[in-house]
Amino acid sequence: MTFLSANLNQVLFAVLPYVAMVLFFLGTIWRYRAQTFSYSSLSSQLLENQQHFWALVPFHYGILAVAFGHFAAFFVPSKVLLWNSVPLRLWLLEITGLAFGLLTLIGLIAIVVRRLTQSKVRVVTTAADWVVYGLLLISVGSGLYTAMFHRWGSSWFAASVAPYLWSLVKFNPDITYVNAMPVVVKIHFVNAFLVFGFFPFSRLVHILVAPNPYLWRKRQVVRWYRRRGEPFAEAK
């Protein structure tokens, strides 16, 4: 059992990250060259705007804040640990991170509900979209669970996760940092690698081009097809 567990950890935390990395870079290049005009969020805002606003705004603000916290702990772990050396500041950082995580979850659930309940939006929702939403729900859910039941994540991320991630960057993976971590934390890591690998094949690619390239790229023609004689309001 220990042997199987050790080999599984090796596959998930020393092999999978590089598979995801290859898929990310090669897939991103391929899609940009082969499907340039699909390199966007493929927004459905024109089909329905009210729910779109109240779902996307909290999701984007939440996910950006959470991502910033992760990047800070990765790039300047010593500064994060220094900040956390004062209990009040540690509590402030943990509560703030949890609040933005909840904001992300609320926005993401609203996005999924909108996709399910709005017929016009549901029609243009692809299988890739549902895969992305599923992965994001697992990511946000496992992250919130970790924040609530495995406290002081900002500190142990800076102390243990950052060195592990840097070992991947240096092509010398050291999985001893993650071997003893709780299962939910491992799920959070693996899911993040899956999101990274699936990134080029989803609408998430708009992160790489938003918003500046829209100012100079070629015009994109959008056509709305309907049967002859069918009233415009009833077009599918």
Layout of secondary structure:
Layout: H1 2-34, H2 50-75, H3 77-84, H4 87-117, H5 119-123, H6 127-149, H7 153-169, H8 176-179, H9 183-198
Helix pairs in contact: 1-9, 2-3, 2-4, 2-7, 3-7, 4-6, 6-9
Any key phrases for this structure?
single chain, about 240 residues, mainly alpha, Fumarate Reductase Cytochrome B subunit, globular
CATH superfamily: Transmembrane di-heme cytochromes, Chain C
Shape: globular
Unreliable parts: none
The helix content, as a percent range, equals: 55-70%
Look at the helices and sheets and give the structural class.
mainly alpha
Bin the strand percentage. Answer: under 5%
Q: Treating each run of at least 4 consecutive H or I residues as one helix, how many helices?
A: 9
Q: Count up the domains.
A: 1
CATH class equals Mainly Alpha
Radius of gyration: 21 Å
Output the CATH topology.
Fumarate Reductase Cytochrome B subunit
Order of helices and strands: HHHHHHHHH
Q: Largest beta sheet, briefly?
A: none
**Averaging pLDDT over every residue, what do you get?**
85
- List how many beta strands DSSP finds: 0
The N- and C-terminal alpha carbons lie at a distance of: 55 Å
Notes on the structure:
With 236 residues, the protein is mostly helical. The protein has one domain: Transmembrane di-heme cytochromes, Chain C (Fumarate Reductase Cytochrome B subunit, Up-down Bundle), CATH 1.20.950. 69% of the residues lie in helices and 0% in strands. It contains 9 helices and no strands. It has helices at residues 2-34, 50-75, 77-84, 87-117, 119-123, 127-149, 153-169, 176-179, 183-198. The protein is globular. The termini are far apart. The mean pLDDT is 85.
